């Protein structure tokens, strides 16, 4: 069975510092990996996805994620955090024709 | 602008009452989905539909029902059989049907249901 884990419930970072939100996964077969962001009382918005090819994927709002097959990870990163990046971030994975599975979410808090 | 409209945004219900949440999309997407979001549990799939007049149960379908009579509409009914219905409900769609490929979900803004 496929699964995805976000080991940190919350990540705190100062504005201007780099941020990392962690995601690890377990699937049978090649994974399709996604990051979504949710602002308070809103739906999720797509940030980026990994399908194949370059392990470093660039997405919206300056975010990027690195696919690491050996560590089965897909961590979300940004070189310089903004207060407006504060939100709930979800990692999701799918393999083959299985349903999309979401992680439990990581709340990012960026302090001025 | 194309998108997904969910209504109502907030809904209060007494125990034992059924309630229907509306989801309408003007994206011409084939597939539509309902997710339930609870704090600390991520998103869980309730029902999905890949074509008009057809739908499949997700992981937590008990106590819920859906219909897909039109491509653009996928309403969710929370019945009195749902034991813990208080949650944030999200409707989503994808351009292509099927779980294969790299379909990206487009979400509505959600409906928050509170059972009193």
SSE pattern of chain B, N- to C-terminal:
EEEEEEEEEEE
The SSE string of chain A, one letter per element, is EEEEEEEEEEEE
Instruction: Using the CA coordinates, give the radius of gyration of chain B.
Output: 13 Å
Biggest beta-sheet profile of chain B: 7 strands, mixed
Average pLDDT reading of chain B: 92
The helix-and-strand class of chain A reads: mainly beta
Described by the principal axes of the CA atoms, the overall outline of chain A is globular
Overall mean confidence score, pLDDT of chain A = 94
Number of beta-strand segments of chain B: 11
User: Helix share of residues of chain A?
Assistant: under 10%
**Beta-strand content estimate of chain B:** over 45%
Largest sheet of chain A: 6 strands, mixed
Provide a descriptive summary of the structure in words.
Chain A is built from no helices and twelve strands. In chain A, the strands form three sheets. In chain A, strands 2, 5, 6, 10, 11 and 12 form a six-stranded mixed sheet that branches. A four-stranded antiparallel sheet of chain A has the order 3-9-8-7, with no helix packed on it. In chain A, strands 1-4 form a two-stranded antiparallel ribbon. Chain A has strands at residues 3-5, 10-14, 19-21, 24-26, 31-38, 44-50, 56-58, 64-68, 73-78, 87-95, 101-102, 106-111. The mean pLDDT of chain A is 94. Chain A is 0% helix and 54% strand. With 112 residues, chain A is mainly β. By secondary structure, chain B is mainly β. In chain B, strands 2, 4, 5, 6, 9, 10 and 11 form a seven-stranded mixed sheet that branches. In chain B, a hairpin with a 2-residue loop joins strand 5 and strand 6 (54-57). The N and C termini of chain B lie far apart (36 Å). The chains are: A mainly beta (112), B mainly beta (116).
